[in-house]
Write a structure and sequence with these properties.
Largest interface: A-B, 33 and 38 residues
Low-confidence stretches of chain A: none
Mean pLDDT of chain A: 79
Number of domains of chain B: 1
Number of strands of chain B: 1
Mean pLDDT of chain B: 82
Strand content of chain B: under 5%
Order of helices and strands of chain B: EHHHHHHHHHHHH
Structural class of chain B: mainly alpha
Largest sheet of chain B: none
Oligomer: heterodimer
Low-confidence stretches of chain B: none
């Protein structure tokens, strides 16, 4: 029994999957911003990341999708959670109302960012998808990271190194000599 | 359009994978209890069925028939989601594991990445479960589990990259193909051409013990200090799912070590025992269960380490050594390979 679909239904299904993934992403984002408890907000962020990973997979780059899962869900979300747990935020305070101007300003700022990003995305001349990158595209990503984009790659590495050193400095100063 | 997916085949795979994960989890509990019993000069379970072999079924029936109690004051949605998060990624991972040359549900070209991507979600379930329980013990346990997982994921991934460098592929089947032959062709021995194989193997094994929260690194559920750790507040099948998730992860970790270091489905002595064939799923399962037995032995014979020494082992020893190992292996591949 082979699952065969009539040719007319294909674009419909394709769009259905795409819209579904977008709904998951937006739902996660809303959960992240509207939740009153910080841990729930992080869970919303995870749902949002999963939606984005799904979109990457849908757009034929399983490698990027898996990296999204590995780095954002497995590392970033877990680290945020960890930070929240260590800080133990007072949830009654979080639930208190924010000052009056914050809402409209946030909407304005969000709209501006969306407008600029969407404008750039529509106007930019995108490269044609070279080959079907279903092979995972690991090699291509590696080659372009070390040739065309090596400058960016090195700069990001330096930023991360500085972040690590900075956190070490902060952690060191709060510690007794005798302890370590 | 023909999607090229045979519906019946897909359903069979799904049922088989879930069944494999569940039966393994149930019977590994029996193995663990029996092993622990004999190591401590007891008999372990023996009442239900011969040698207590029906004990897992009885346990399962008991857990499933219990009421699902949600304690007052917990964060209800997170509390309900956490056990599911423990089990679902484990089932997803089984999809990509090749048990023999042809016995794999989905042969994905970046299968190794799939495993690590889904395995990294597992920490989230401990975190969510511990936090949502609103219990001091559970929160402490979750914090410990996360600091441990974050620390050990780095050397684990670095070691995996080393093996990827040596075998030149992210495809699990191709990694096994590159070790075809008797046991001296496998990645764990220097005779394979990679002199650092044994070091990588031992460090990978230590990291994998720590990643699955197994003794001597099971600080997340140190019973003497934290009751039961992050699943203190869970009863019935919520607890059951956490338990099954843990054992499924042990199976996955052992299968991964067999694939990366122990030659997958190839026979260690193809000429000596010819009637078993030079390759086959039975060799894979045999190696996997021997590794699992080793893990059980380690749990019941080694004392638990302290959190301090656990984190020191990772940050001060394993991470520098694994990075050095990666560089040296890359050099070997470049100049000798």
């Amino acid at each position: 029994m082979n699952l065969s679909i009539s040719p007319e239904a294909v674009p419909l299904i394709r769009e259905g999957i795409f819209v579904g993934l977008i709904i998951v992403t937006v739902f996660g984002a809303l959960l992240a911003t509207l939740a009153k408890r910080m841990t729930r907000a992080v869970l919303g962020l995870v749902v949002c990341f999963l939606g984005i990973a799904g979109i990457y997979y849908f757009l034929n780059s399983p490698f990027v999708a898996l990296m999204q899962l590995l780095i954002y869900v497995g590392a970033v979300a877990v680290t945020i959670c960890f930070a929240i747990m260590l800080a133990e935020p007072d949830e009654r305070k979080l639930a208190a109302k924010t000052p009056g101007m914050a809402g409209p300003l946030a909407v304005l700022l969000g709209a501006t960012v969306t407008w600029v990003l969407a404008g750039t995305a529509i106007k930019a001349e995108w490269m044609a998808p070279a080959v079907k990158i279903n092979e995972g595209s690991v090699k291509d990503v590696g080659v372009s990271l070390l040739t065309t984009y090596s400058m960016v790659f090195e700069l990001v590495s330096i930023v991360l190194l500085i972040a690590i050193l900075g956190s070490l400095v902060i952690a060191r100063s709060g510690r007794d000599k005798a302890e370590c | 359009m023909d999607l090229g997916i045979n519906v019946i085949e897909m359903l069979l795979y799904l049922v088989a994978i879930i069944g494999f994960a569940a039966i393994n989890a149930a019977y590994l509990v029996w193995v663990e209890r029996k092993g622990a019993g004999h190591i401590q000069r007891r008999t372990g379970p023996k009442e239900v069925g011969p040698y207590g072999l029906l004990q897992p079924l009885a346990d399962g029936a008991k857990l499933m028939s219990k009421q699902l109690i949600i304690p007052a004051g917990v964060d209800k949605p997170l509390f309900m989601v956490a056990p599911l998060l423990a089990m679902v990624p484990a089932v997803m991972i089984f999809v990509t594991i090749p048990f023999s040359e042809n016995l794999v549900a989905r042969d994905i070209n970046i299968g190794l990445l799939v495993i690590f991507a889904f395995a990294s979600v597992n920490v989230l379930s401990l975190l969510m479960g511990g936090w949502a329980s609103r219990n001091k013990y559970a929160v402490i346990s979750a914090a410990r589990a996360v600091s441990q997982n974050v620390a050990y994921e780095i050397p684990l991934l670095v070691m995996t990259i080393t093996i990827v460098l040596v075998s030149g592929s992210l495809n699990l089947r191709e990694i096994v193909f590159s070790q075809a032959g008797a046991f001296w062709h496998w990645n764990w021995l220097p005779t394979n051409g990679n002199f650092l194989g044994p070091i990588t193997f031992i460090m990978f094994f230590i990291c994998y013990l720590a990643e699955t929260n197994r003794a001597p690194f099971d600080l997340g559920e140190a019973e003497s200090e934290l009751i039961a750790g992050f699943h203190t507040e869970y009863g019935s099948m919520g607890f059951g799912l956490f338990f099954m998730g843990e054992y499924a992860n042990i199976v996955i970790g052992s299968a991964l070590i067999v694939i990366l270091f122990l030659g997958g489905w190839y026979s260690p002595f193809p000429e000596v025992v010819p009637f078993l064939g030079s390759a086959g799923v039975w060799w894979f399962l045999l190696k996997m269960y021997l590794l699992i037995w080793l893990v059980v032995l380690i749990r019941w014979t080694f004392p638990r380490v302290t959190l301090w020494s656990l984190l020191n082992l990772s940050w001060k020893i394993l991470i520098p050594f694994s990075l050095f190992n990666l560089l040296a292996s890359a050099g070997l591949v470049k100049f000798l390979g």
